[in-house]
Design brief:
The protein is 19% helix and 37% strand. By secondary structure, the protein is of the alpha/beta class. The protein has two domains: 9-115, 2,3-Dihydroxybiphenyl 1,2-Dioxygenase, domain 1 (Roll), CATH 3.10.180; 131-273, Roll (2,3-Dihydroxybiphenyl 1,2-Dioxygenase, domain 1). A nine-stranded mixed beta sheet has the order 14-15-16-13-9-12-11-10-17. Strands 2-3-4-1-5-8-7-6 form an eight-stranded mixed beta sheet, with helices on one face. A hairpin with a 5-residue loop joins β7 and β8. The longest helix has 13 residues, at 72-84. The two termini are 29 Å apart.
Amino acid sequence: MNPLLWPATLHHLRRDTPEPERLAHFYGELLGDAVERIGPALWRVQGPSRLLVVGEGEPGTVPYAAFSITAADRLAGLRAQLEREGVATSAFVSPAVDAESLAVTDPDGRSLVFVALPVEAPRPVPGPTGRLQHFVCATAGLASMLEFYRDRLGFVESDRVIDAASPPEEAMSAVFLRSDEEHHSFAVFRAPQSRADHHSYETGGWTDIRDWADRMGELRIPLWWGPGRHGVGNNLFFMIEDPDGYKVEFSAEIERVPRETAWRSWPHEQRTLNLWGSAWMRS
């Protein structure tokens, strides 16, 4: 475990698409957030405790996820520790924030960025809350991704999902990792191909889930999955699809897990992912 990572929170993502202006305005309308052009084919969508950079690229992709670690001295210490462990780091300039940062590349070629930013005080806002909380990807190399995020970077394993019908070396079908006391800020599912899976906005409770679902109805955006309750993480949720078919989750009441708590094992079955009904099974 790398103690310099803890705590870290997901701060922003970059989503790429062949039509960035269209996608940026989709998210702006979806969330009620400000949309600003910040470069050629590059847009920022920003609201309370959430930030998305939308750029030009392959549909449904997430080139990087950025985590805030709250202090420049921790960032310098993290860089030194990673380099001692043989993890290459590079300077990174985010188009979305003016802050010192560094980047590493995970086994699937995605950048993970660490940004030194002060803790933001919660701001009261009209309507339901929805802070950016976690990012999930799918991978054809689950063991390598777990080793990198847990053993090299310092994320803490919360839960893993085991497929008892698979050979032992292929039995793990998902792993959920945390960088603060919320159950997961990052997770990885086994899949035939590596790809972005979804990102999630954490709301204030069941009534916010209801209000966000009502907003989807007003925008004529159908719920793709849910509402339901995840077994892993115990959070209420529903998901929609954006214009690229990429999934977006609205969540509430995600489980809190102290840093020292050991990981648990769940069976590879629909109930693990949805205690209320059917589930999206990646493999």
